[in-house]
Design brief:
Elements (H helix, E strand, L loop, with lengths): L1 H13 L5 H20 L8 E5 L8 H12 L3 E6 L4 H11 L3 E5 L5 H12 L6 E5 L2 H6 L5 E4 L2 H12 L1
Parallel strand pairs: 1-2, 1-3, 3-4, 4-5
Helix pairs in contact: 1-2, 2-3, 3-7, 4-5
């Protein structure tokens, strides 16, 4: 329900039917709703999964929605936010020792490849790395040891792998 809403909001913003402030207001309301839902989660039964977007990605809705879904399925989550350099993702990973890191990207940008490659290279092999985003990102970012999902339903199907 929220994913189609945010797609519509994005389309309205692109068509200039919504202002930036209106788009941000809807985004904040949805993020607050998802945060409230995450606080109602069942007891965590897994290690922690980090969620972030790489440099150049200003929108975090995808990772927040994915984190909410994971949280509701008993996975401990930490949403680091948007536009994080790989060094910051790695700093959080050293401190939190996640079992998985999810990096969300909407656009195929060189920063995505560099960020994902750096995170994969500098985390333990046992840490699962997942790149989430449209098929365009999947086709342009190829890093050994990194899984890809294009949609939230595809992410939901793979959640059992990340709960282990």
């Amino acid at each position: 329900m929220l994913s189609p809403l945010m797609s519509t909001v994005g389309a309205l913003w692109e068509g200039r039917a919504l202002s930036i402030a209106q788009e941000h207001l809807v985004s904040v309301l949805v993020r607050n709703l998802l945060g409230a839902l995450m606080r109602q989660r069942p007891p965590a039964t897994s290690g922690i999964t980090l969620f972030a977007t790489p440099p150049g990605e200003a929108h975090e809705f995808g990772i927040v929605l994915a984190a909410s879904l994971a949280s509701m399925r008993g996975i401990r989550v930490s949403v680091l936010g948007s536009g994080l350099p790989s060094a910051e993702i790695l700093r959080a990973a050293r401190y939190l020792r996640p079992t998985a890191i999810v990096i969300g990207a909407m656009l195929a940008q060189p920063e995505v490849q560099r960020c994902v490659a750096a995170v994969r290279a500098k985390t333990p092999v046992r840490t699962k790395i997942l790149l989430g985003g449209p098929v365009a990102v999947r086709q342009s970012v190829s890093v050994p040891g990194v899984d890809h999902v294009a949609t939230l339903s595809e992410f939901a199907d793979r959640l059992p792998q990340y709960a282990a």
